[in-house]
Amino acid sequence: MGKQDRDFKAVGTRPLRPDGVEKVTGRAKFGADLSAPGMLVGRFLRSPHAHARIRSIDTSKAAALPGVKAVVTGDSFDITKVSSGNHDTLANVMARDKALYEGHAVAAIAAISVSIARKALKLIEVDYEVLPHVTDVDEAMAADAPLLHENMFTANLTPKPTKPSNIANFYEFGHGDIEAGFAKADVIIERSFKTAATHQGYIEPHACLANMTQDGQGELWCCTQGHFMVRNVCADLMGMEISKLRVTASEIGGGFGGKTTVFIDPVALMLSKLAGKPVKIVMSREEVFKASGPTSSTSMRIKIGATNDGRLTACEGEFNYQGGAYADSPVQFGAMSAFACYDLEHVKTVGYDVAANRPKNVAYRAPGAPMAAFAVESVMAEMADRLGLDQLEFRLKNAATEGTRSSYGPTYNSVGLTETIKAAQSHDHYSAPLGANQGRGIASGFWFNFGGQTAVSLNVQEDGTVNVTVGTPDIGGSRASMGLMVAEELGIEYDNIRCIIADTSSLGYNDVTDGSRTTFSSGLALINAAKDAKAKMCARAARIWDIPAEAVEWKDGCVQPAGANAGEFEPMSFAEIAANADNTGGPIAGHHEINASGAGVSFGTHMVDVEVDPDTGYVKILRYTVVQDAGKAVHPAYVEGQYQGGAVQGIGWALNEEYIYGEDGRLQNAGFLDYRMPVASDLPMIDTVIVEVPNPGHPYGVRGVGETSIVPPMAAIANAVSQAAGVRMTELPMSPPRVLKAMDDAKGG
Amino acid sequence: MTQTHVSTTINGDKVEYLCETDETLLDVLRDTLSLTGSKEGCGSGDCGACSVMLDGRLVCACLVLGVEAQDRKIETIEGMASGDELHPLQQKFLEHAALQCGICTPGFLVAAKALLDENPDPTETEVRYWLAGNLCRCTGYDKIIRAVMDAATEMRGQA
Amino acid sequence: MRFEAPTSLNAAIELLENEAGVVRILAGGTDVLVQLRSGQVEPDLIVDIKRIEAMQTITEEDGGFRIGAAVCGAELGGHAGVCKLWPGVVEAVELIGSTQVQGRATMVGNLCNASPAADSVPAMVAAGATARVTGPEGSRDIPVEKIATGPGQTSLGRAELVESVYLPARGVHSSDAYLRFIPRTEMDIAVVGAGISIEMDGNGICTHARVALGAVGPRVMLVEDAATALIGTSIDEAALEALAQAASSAATPIDDKRGTVDFRIKVAGVLARRAAIIAVQRSRVD
Going from the N-terminus, what domains does chain A have, and what CATH number goes with each? Predict the structure, then answer.
């Protein structure tokens, strides 16, 4: 399917975002920016040990300190009333019997000042029995590894294990006969890979302001990707009715998946309940690194077979993902997405979700996919070189297209992988010359894209302007995209539409802003809400003209008589109908509630040039180009922004970002200084090419664009570095000591 | 802890406050004076989200004690626009879509203004190195750099 | 915790002398505030020296420059005289942190923080800089390499502070350079640092050299063998190779989150060589 025939008026333009001025003037209210009269500050006491049994906690001295108004420990929550699906979340929010990682919360204080809270924390006495710990994924899988949970038996394995282990889950995907496939191969390459855990690295630490009143009702202000999720989880943990807790999402200072769960919110609510006053909690950066969501470290093995003319015959992968203290790794997505780019007769992937003494895993942008793509696309590059084939031609030859049965099961509808590869081929980057010590890497990547539960509302005002209400937090400019889609559907000016994110009491349930679902799902719902409003406005016009409602039609932002009555009345504008609302039946509004499906998968292909310093192993990114299918780019500037942002997060992951643990199981680099995210001077401009292969599941062809962009970078950079350094890099990050050692070892060997 | 009385000037206005010795200027701005435009991303000078001007020099407010501000001149993001008119940098950040989540934006704007006040015609490399102390996790910096360069061009045209 | 901002050096010394508890001197504060926040240190008294006028100034003295303890990086970098005389020292100071940190951080603070990875210190050591240490007994001038005794430890007495650092005059055909290795381009702590100062005669032969390394031992080290490798040569390829060897041999680093032993040993030589090449080029321009 090629370009769509439809002419868009609003969609595809680049207007200013509605929340922009507040953000450039410092007035936008983020999580930590709200205060309440009489507010207390909340602070956490956290485990200094990677793994320890909590024998006892004595908070009496802390509670007696003047100015301390409430103390919370695991016992403050009644786990018997909490649904079993939230038990791990509760145990993570406040440790119960064991501290499972350094930084695990064991108690919290609400006090009238920061200095008193700090003092009070020192008065809490915790008696720990320190236990052996494990942080590495391969070590955690070993038979004699220290056990985190005595009741963890690997799920989905046959026969069912009789002994507990740190492996929570086993997954298997694929089709065909993998051995038969390898038997047909002329060349087989098998490699092992490891990647370090990385953090989402949002600049805004988790923050919230909780206000429980004595009648059992509550309000919560917090930075989250999903305030409806926060409400439901917190209500469950607090033993409250859902309707009694109202959660308002603040402006959110980055999430990237990391704000799709709760850490501090239930504790703030409990402190507020016990103190009878509002309580504000803001995490420090150290707490963010130690106690909020990193993604997995991994250990992977990939085996690919191909014929001499470059056709893949079989692909196999084993993925071991370290999922933190409660084994929440995204290995399932890793195993599903690993070979999703290719049209394969024989494919098999297995995944193990592994617990270790590290923070509970939370989603990070395309969760699970980037590591798998690093491994698979590294072997793909090596295979192309081995076969003497052009990197892009080799991928094109095997690319999944419409009708391909995907490696994880479903058969693809219209997809845009080949279009991204062809666009990369014709890009001048691909043929630009390279200098000494330089290399060029290519990789493709895939993300599923989500739909999900969505509820929206659209109110037509008497002056012909429109307020739009969605329940999906705006993490990167989605309010502008919502406005554009409504403008398109209603045929009115973008500037006459104002979109806000409503609190949880104002709309039906909305799933979290994740999986690149918001512009797709909330947009889809809004288009339907606009259609709903249009139908009502048609009826109003018919009423004014006193003709049957079926005898009018919507055209170019106006209602006009149709059929037998065509031409009988002057078309009535949107504004005119809006102005007459009070005489024609009262306020005009559109609504839509949906559990959206048909999100439409997205593919991207990246190209990167690097230079490796042969004496130090330092890698410089010289040039970077992202090509990705957006289906239809609603606001192209923000689509480019998603491409660029994902690529640069991938650059960080590839080169320097990592969780570094000491022998003692403690995180050694819990700060921006030594976590080493890319800074402006590390980077070139990031070129983007927006390919548009419409998604048949959306009226405008929209696909999610937020996540695919972080999938190819590590593989692309590894391929470039491997070429420049003359040695295949199989471990992330490719930090200078690791690159230099690989080069020296290659020379020595 | 006993508090110290401090008189200082913020965005041209005389301001007085009480603060504890270990409170940072950022704590004072945000929690005492409700000037929450300066953000705390790290508290250790590594992210630049709390960038302010102190006696004409760009600093991180998290690395200044509140008590140090006695008789100093402080400029924050809240003082950047004049009346209902945005500073050209603010306008260019909007036009170039140089913000996604917007948490780093105040710090980038204060830092970029300090650059252009000192060097009205910076190269891309100069902009990138000047702003290396401001972390942005959303944009990959591309559109921020373009916005600063474009603002510089416009401001040179006006001068 | 008390806070004092004396306006004279004597008043500052008196405050230090009269405080029995833990004291922290606040210059730029870019280390002290981080330590305060992390709870690493809980001082009873903080003495802000930025209101002492003499400490805010750069003065020319015997053909060299005296840099006050409260002079921030941005100010030093804007001083044409120091930039011309000791470009390596200035570039080392300017590598400390971001533009924002440059607006606060001081060279003397970097010295007294006593980190083995301090950027300005190898450059100062190579330059033969001296620190003026002042206390109740008066002042003394000591080589800057005598200040740090180990990570976070100094030779300063309880009521002593470093009032200024003196960068000496130097001859024609001489210059200096500092290079550090970091995994990014900015915002990192040196994994290895190398400062070199050289003086050449009219015939292009090196007559004097000082080579200092950072982050490859418990304190910044002056490497005499590395200097010897250059003196008496035209700093040709053989001399550079000997320099690199000497630098790598002198390095006694540890494995940590920022780098490995092998990496640091090798890169110490690489950086010493590269810094020497820059210093030679600069000495020719003079």
Answer: 20-27+451-596 (3.30.365.10), 34-131+204-253+259-291 (3.90.1170.50), 297-449+600-748 (3.30.365.10)
Interacting residues of C44 by C-beta distance below 8 A, sequence separation 6+: C1, C2, C19, C20, C21, C22, C23
> pTM of this prediction?
0.98
Residues of B in contact with A519 (CB under 8 A): none
Per DSSP, the three-state class of A307 is: coil
Whether the link from the prior residue into A733 is cis, omega within 30° of 0, is yes
C:221-260 residues touching chain A, CB 8 A cutoff:
256-260
| Closest listed residue to residue A645, CA positions, set B124, B126, B110, B99 | B99
Q: Does residue C91 fall inside a structural domain?
A: no
What tens digit of pLDDT does each residue of A20-44 get? 999 999 999 999 999 999 999 999 9
Say how far apart CA A2 and CA A12 lie, in whole Å: 17
What residues of chain A lie within 8 A of the CB of C189, using their CB? 673-674
C188–A618: do the CB atoms touch at under 8 Å? no
> Is the predicted ipTM greater than 0.90, yes or no?
yes
Q: Which of A668, A678, A741 sits opposite C257 (nearest CB)?
A: A668
CB pairs under 8 A between B and C: 87
- CATH code, C272: 3.30.390.50
- pLDDT tens digits for range A467-522: 999 999 999 899 999 999 999 999 999 999 999 999 999 999 999 998 889 999 99
Instruction: Give B135's contacts in chain A (Cβ within 8 Å).
Output: 203, 672, 677, 679
Neighbours of chain A (3+ CB pairs under 8 A): B, C
d(C-alpha A235, C-alpha A189), whole Å: 52
Helix axis angle for A736-748 and C261-285, nearest 10°, is 100
Question: What percent helix, strand, coil does chain B show, rounded to 5?
Answer: 40, 20, 40
How big is the CA angle at C87 (ends C86 and C93), to the nearest 5 degrees? 95
| Cβ atoms C58, C65 nearer than 8 A | yes
Q: For B13-39, how does the pLDDT look when each residue is reduced to its tens digit (9 = 90+)?
A: 999 999 999 999 999 999 999 999 999
Tokens for B136, please give them.
Answer: 């942005």
CA distance B101 to chain C (A): 22
